[in-house]
Specification:
The protein has about 675 residues and is α/β, with parallel strands linked by helices. About 45% of the residues lie in helices and about 20% in strands. The longest helix is centred in the last third of the chain and has 18 residues.
Length: about 675
């Protein structure tokens, strides 16, 4: 404690230590820089000292390599203080270092879910020996994994690791505040028989400085940011890689060091940005969600948000990067391009002021990860029985609502389509699996999420700039095309498909790339309802600038009367008649499909309304919506069949192609449609 300069533990650390030392599985909740890491690691290290080991006894798992690298020195200090060591295992660690670790393992291993999968599948890694005394796992930023395929993958891998150890592995999750901590803890618990605890001590809210400005698109955004970033260290969050590139381009040449940080910028460029920013005084990193997690880039003065994130959770995570120094306020400046973005930002602020944050939606029928894990188990063991697969995977929470009969149906389909081969009662990889996933020694099976084919972007001298998705590269023309990457414009010299790279040279000007995200992006029901509540109200919002105040006042005059006291209304505009709902994209999409199945009406939808094609009377619409509110309509087999047939062929996972069509389309339907929330919305209309 003295070496760290601490005089006492924080409440979250005291409470977590007691629960962890008592053997509980625990979910530890605290804001950014709230002491979560120490809350888990100190009691973990105490147990490692009490019961030494010659194998890996504890795992620290982070969702991204950057967070692992960021925590390596910190956890190295803690382990060294008690005479232990830790090892960092991910794709950038050299084979020689990994070989030395496998011969002489450390008690604490720091890694990612995908790297654990690689260890399990590699014939060069003695996993049964390494993990024979595994006792504890700490999952950092667990809210970033829960409810998505990567979380289901991690829980499956932990289940498989459990075969190597006699211990009921103690599970400790670290998270920012979430709306459903009990459900997250139950998900993390899986089949573990340990008692469980949520560590969530009262939080003393600190002062906050919030501002929402409307700033038109173009160079004005850069000028507005320049005024507030000058002489300070700032993070400028953008909602897409393309937009972050554009903003960085606007900011360059204005006297402030500008860095770009997103997943298509090369690792070396990202690390250089983090290091130079950490030591700088007058600098800004323009970033996407890659810096939303707890990566330490030093003391920050300001967070700027282009437009608005889609969730309260993201807003709080980003704002939480500031206000850590004594006397400093946590702050966020929203620079919004238009009135809708300003209204969305205000809704996030109002929800956060009331202490509300989203619940993480959890999965119970996670088909793509089930496919992935069946293939991974056949690779791991060479051949495995269907019964053994079910024993390993049937206990994972993310597959809980998949019956054994459905599992066997999936296996039979995979055998029939030659993704699996059955011989002597054992399943192994089939010819089709080798054709589709066998490239580069089955690297496609090492990660559950879709890994788009990336092309390296390099200069003529071979300097790496970053990477581009193949669907973007396919549109490039040698000597003509120009795009932004790393905050700078580049002209294409040549695309070398055989080498999977794009050779470029610097250009004086550039244009926005298209990054290939074609899926609809939905705002949640509650965020949209809060936007409606703001429009139906007349109270001033003190954090709005003059332009934002005027904009929301105009929206209140236009839409407020229609929204006041009503869940939905018919709104007539020059574009035609609309069903005004402010119910979120999934609800409106559900209404769109329901009205088409019920009445044959066509419409288009967004997060706030349905635009009806043709004339529909108010009475006809009300009658139709009353029918859509009834469970009987949606439970009718004919409705289910027609709804399934209406789903577009979105590819949500690289393993979707392996599934029987009903299971594949169920995935798409679950993404696009929310019948339960829609019925609840209509019932109160």
């Amino acid at each position: 404690m003295a070496r760290l300069g601490w005089s006492e533990l924080r409440p979250v650390q005291e409470l977590a230590s007691q629960a962890i030392l008592d053997g509980h599985n625990a979910l530890v909740l605290a804001p950014t820089a709230g002491g979560k890491t120490e809350a888990a690691m100190f009691p973990l290290l105490a147990q490692l000292i009490e019961k030494p080991t010659i194998a890996v006894a504890a795992l620290y798992i982070a969702p991204i390599k950057a967070l692992l690298n960021n925590q390596a020195e910190r956890l190295g200090t803690y382990t060294e203080m008690v005479g232990l060591d830790r090892f960092l295992w991910h794709g950038d660690v050299t084979p020689g270092e990994k070989r030395r670790f496998t011969k002489n393992p450390t008690a604490l291993l720091m890694t990612t879910p995908e790297s654990l999968e690689v260890m399990l599948l590699s014939g060069k890694v003695p996993t049964s020996r390494l993990f024979r005394d595994l006792r504890m796992v700490v999952i950092d930023e667990i809210h970033a994994l829960a409810g998505i395929d990567r979380g289901a993958h991690l829980m499956s891998v932990l289940q498989r690791l459990g075969r190597f150890t006699p211990h009921d592995i103690q599970r400790i999750g670290l998270s920012a505040t979430v709306g459903n901590p009990e459900a997250i803890l139950e998900w993390m618990q899986g089949p573990s028989q340990r008692p469980r605890a949520i560590i969530d001590p009262p939080k003393v809210p600190g002062p906050r400085e919030l501002r929402i400005q409307i700033t038109p698109d173009g160079p004005t955004m850069g000028r507005a940011a320049e005024r507030v970033t000058e002489g300070q260290k700032s993070l400028f969050f953008c909602q897409s890689r393309a937009y972050s590139e554009d903003v960085a381009q606007q900011l360059r040449g204005r006297g402030t060091d500008v860095f770009v940080h997103h997943s298509s910028v090369s690792l070396a460029e990202r690390q250089a940005a983090e290091e130079r920013f950490h030591r700088g005084k007058d600098a800004v990193i323009v970033c996407t969600s890659t810096l939303e997690l707890g990566i330490d880039v030093g003391d920050l003065d300001r967070v700027i948000q282009a437009n608005a994130p889609s969730t309260v959770s993201s807003f709080l995570q980003r704002m939480g990067r500031t206000g850590r120094r004594p006397g400093q306020r946590a702050n966020t400046l929203f620079l919004c391009e238009d009135s809708v973005s300003a209204l969305q930002a205000a809704a996030l602020v109002e929800l956060a002021r009331r202490g509300w944050v989203e619940s993480v939606p959890l999965q119970r029928r996670c088909w793509p990860v089930l496919v992935h894990q069946i293939l991974a188990l056949t690779l791991q063991y060479g051949g495995i029985s269907c019964e053994r697969c079910w024993d390993d995977l049937g206990q994972v929470t993310d597959f809980r609502d998949i019956s054994k009969t459905e599992f066997e149906e999936l296996v039979e389909h995979m055998v029939g389509s030659q993704f699996l081969f059955r011989s002597g009662g054992l399943l192994s990889l089939g010819d089709e699996a080798e054709r589709v996933f066998g490239r580069r020694n089955f690297m496609e099976i090492y990660a559950v999420f879709t890994t788009p084919q990336l092309y390296a972007v390099v200069t003529g001298q071979g300097r790496p700039i970053g990477s581009l998705d193949q669907n973007f590269v396919d549109k490039l023309v040698d000597g003509v095309s120009c795009f932004l990457l790393g905050g700078r414009p580049w002209v294409v010299d040549t695309v070398r498909h055989s080498e999977r790279d794009v050779v470029v040279h610097a250009a004086p000007v550039g244009r926005k790339p298209t990054w290939g995200n074609y899926l609809p992006q939905f705002l949640s029901f509650l965020v949209c309802r809060e936007m409606a509540a703001i429009l139906a109200d007349s109270r001033p919002l003190p954090y709005l600038d003059e332009a934002a105040t005027q904009s929301i006042s105009e929206q209140r005059r236009d839409l407020g009367p229609a929204l006041a006291g009503h869940r939905w209304s018919v709104h007539t505009s020059p574009k035609g008649e609309s069903l005004l709902t402010f119910a979120g994209g999934a609800v409106n999409q559900t209404l769109k499909y329901g009205l088409h199945i019920l009445k044959g009406w066509s419409s288009s939808s967004d997060n706030f309304r349905l635009r009806l094609d043709g004339t529909v009377t108010h009475g006809e619409l009300r009658d139709a919506l009353q029918q859509l509110a009834q469970a009987e309509f949606w439970e009718n087999p004919e409705t289910s069949d027609r709804l399934m047939a209406s789903m577009p062929e979105y590819r949500l996972s690289k393993f979707q192609q392996v599934l029987p069509r009903p299971f594949a389309m169920e995935m798409v339907q679950n993404y696009l449609v929310d019948i339960e929330t829609t019925r609840r919305f209509l019932a109160h209309a």
